[in-house]
Fold:
Amino acid sequence: MLLYINQIPFRYECSLTLGETTLFPDFTIRHPQTGDIYYWEHFGLMDKPIYIQNTYSKLQLYTSHGIIPTIQLITTYETKDYPMDVDTISKIIQHYFL
Structure:
């Protein structure tokens, strides 16, 4: 919702083909000033071992195709004990897009 409120163009779960694999990043975002494309993946079950393995594999796939975390790929994480909060999301949006 914060992307929408800040008038940042995005698509939710838009397909992205990397080699022979199709992913659906949580958000595909166009920078409002530069037009550069960013992907945002939120990894929300980081207290589950299988999910952690899948996260690692997904990050390897992104990087092997030149989509680098903290450059074109925004990543956020949470566990049951450490949920994501609105202030953190606001700071990320401010840093990357405003």
